[in-house]
Structure formats: C-alpha cells, structure tokens
Write a sequence for this structure.
C-alpha cells in the first residue's frame, strides 16, 4: 500500500514530539540560499536565541549542528578525546552506554560507572572514579536518560567538579532536557552539551544544538589529531558565527527556520515557565498512572518530567497495547530500548504536548486499551 498522506498522530513517545504549529508555518517561508547575506543574519539570531535557551552566555561556542543528537554526542567526543585519554562515563541506560561505545571508538580508555536501568549513577561514585583516575580528560553523564526516565543531578556534579579545580571536562547529554527541564550551562559548570530539535524544543528532527565552554574550546584548538571534517567545530564556527562567512556545508535552511521559530516561542513563553509547564504535565501524568496501579521505572527522587517509563504489568502484551494505541487512537508511545532494557512503555509529554490536556487524552486511550487486557480485566 502506498501512503500519499501520512496519518495524524499524537506523538507521546520518547521523541519525536509533535512539531510546533509555528515551526511548521516557518518552514513554508521563502527559501534562501546558505550563502545569502540575509540568511547569515538569521544564523546569528539562531545562535543568540540558543545561548538563551542553554543559559550559555559565557560559553565559547554555541551553534546547532546540521545533524541529529547522536552526531552531537559524537562531535563532542571526537573533539575532546584523543587516543589513550581517560573518560569517565555514567552508564545507567541506553544513551550512557552509547557515549561509552563512541568514546571507545575514538581510542579512549573508558571507565564506565554503571547502575541498573531506572537508577541514577550517583555523583559520589563518579567522584570516586575521578579519585582513582585524577587525570581523566572527560566526565560524561546523560542529564535526562531517554531510555529510562531518569534525571541526573547535573548541577550538583558540576559544582563538585568546580570545587576540585581540575582539568576534567563535564560532558552532558541534554537531548531530552533542553527546553523542558531546568538547565543552566554556565551555572552548572558544563563544558560540552548537546541536544536535539525534536523533543522539548518542538521542531522537526535533524539538528543538534551544541554549547561548548571556552576551556573546552581551548582543548579543541590545541588538539593535534584532525576531527571529521563535517563535524569540525572550528570550521562550523566560521560559518555560523564569524563574519564574513566561510562556506562549510549546504545548511538545512528550512530546519533552521523551524529552530528559530521554536526558540522565539521559548523566549516569549519564558524559559522558567516552559520548565514549569513540562514539570506540571509530567507530574500529573505520573500521579495518574500510579493511581491506576501502574509502576514507574525511575527512582522517584530522580524522575524526569518530560519522559515517564512505565513497567508493563505481568501478563500484559506490551507491544499489543502500543499497536492498539497507534491504530485505534492515533497515539504513539515507545517501548524499551536496547539489550537489557526491562519491559516498559515510554511516555513522553514534550514541547507542545507538555500539557494536562494531552496527558488526559493519553490516559483515556490507555484506560480503554488496558480494560481489554485479560489479566487486568479479571483483576477488576
């Protein structure tokens, strides 16, 4: 069967989220070339708005990479690690493990500090690892682990590293936190952060906003081994920030329009208000799920608001529930991700979907589907 018009979906999984209507409209604006001087003014506006979204006014470099979140992850590791460098990585889910894997591919000596899915790798354990490897070049954590719904206490980790006054850089995956969870690049003492456009920002997938501290940029400029050309931060800086522009790549113009629009929307809403909206919607959903007798995966002390992992009840066919939600209600949710993941559903309320009304729509559909599950029906 050929699908000419995609069906409408309410995207309540781990991402992408539904695109902001303003971003969709922005992508209908007239196309400019990537070397058009008016486009270069737009690039600078995007960088300025992105600094505000990250709270990265003191950062050495802020820009959106012309690729996905995983490329943002790889860009940082490629620039900040060289063969033989020690990298300490907190691994309590799929994306922490991915950081460790990519770091190994660049020849790093990875010290992986692990915790079970649903738990956080404590800052104490990470700092203990740093005591054992005081010359570690990098400490990497996932601020918002999309595979488990766990939020890392990033501010506290940054403060502890600053107190030590060492050379270890703080590397943070902010894919599911930028625009939806309190995040202060400067205040938290982060050295490299990356995100994506399709989650709490509410733009289409395809770009990875980055923020890099000045001390991290000093390491970038001092490295001797070349990095991949398409990911080269110094070359990208020449296109996005420095003037006159130096050509590097054909930029995804319409995606840039969309990103500019959602960053403007964040500025109008207010960053704190947006964090609060995500927090309220996530907390409401989580309370309602618990009242229905469902169990959440994440440690309650570190529960993420935009992403909730729900344990699939014994005897329930989790995939069948997902399929029915999609086919009968037009709602997408996610399942477990990667080897070793427990049987879970992953429910996302991000970007324009971070509302009580969306939570109620999701809960109503879930109630209807679960009422037909034999195990739960007999229990009722």
């Amino acid at each position: 069967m050929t699908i000419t018009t995609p069906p409408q979906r309410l995207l309540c999984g781990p991402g992408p989220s539904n695109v902001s209507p303003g971003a969709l409209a922005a992508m209908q604006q007239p196309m400019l070339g990537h070397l058009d001087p008016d486009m270069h003014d737009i690039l600078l506006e995007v960088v300025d708005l992105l600094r505000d979204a990250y709270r990265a006014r003191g950062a050495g470099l802020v820009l959106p990479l012309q690729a996905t979140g995983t490329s943002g992850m790889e860009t940082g590791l490629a620039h900040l690690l060289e063969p033989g460098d020690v990298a300490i990585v907190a691994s309590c889910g799929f994306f922490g493990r991915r950081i460790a894997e990519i770091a190994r591919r660049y020849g790093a000596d990875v010290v992986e500090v692990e915790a079970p899915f649903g738990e956080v790798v404590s800052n104490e354990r990470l700092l203990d690892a740093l005591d054992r490897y005081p010359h570690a070049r990098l400490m990497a954590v996932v601020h918002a682990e999309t595979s488990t719904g766990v939020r890392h206490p990033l501010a506290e980790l940054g403060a502890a590293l600053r107190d030590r006054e060492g050379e270890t850089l703080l590397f943070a995956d902010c894919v599911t936190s930028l625009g939806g969870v309190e995040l202060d690049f400067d205040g938290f003492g982060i050295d490299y952060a990356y995100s994506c456009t399709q989650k709490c920002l509410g733009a289409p997938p395809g770009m990875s906003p980055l923020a890099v501290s000045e001390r991290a940029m000093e390491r970038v400029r001092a490295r001797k081994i070349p990095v991949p050309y398409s990911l080269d931060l110094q070359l990208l800086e020449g296109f996005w920030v420095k003037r006159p522009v130096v050509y590097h790549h054909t930029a995804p113009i319409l995606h840039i329009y969309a990103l500019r629009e959602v960053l403007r929307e964040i500025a109008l809403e207010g960053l704190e208000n947006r964090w609060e909206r995500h927090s309220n919607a996530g907390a409401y959903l989580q309370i309602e799920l618990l009242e229905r007798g469902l169990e959440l995966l994440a440690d309650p002390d570190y529960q993420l608001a935009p992403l909730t992992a729900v344990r699939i009840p014994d005897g329930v066919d989790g995939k069948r529930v997902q399929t029915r939600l999609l086919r009968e209600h037009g709602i997408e949710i996610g399942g477990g991700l990667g080897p070793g993941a427990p049987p879970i559903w992953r429910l996302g309320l991000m970007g324009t979907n971070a509302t009580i009304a969306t939570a109620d729509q999701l809960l109503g559909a879930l109630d209807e589907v679960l009422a037909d599950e034999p195990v739960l029906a007999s229990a009722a």
Summary: DSSP finds 14 helices and 15 strands in the chain.
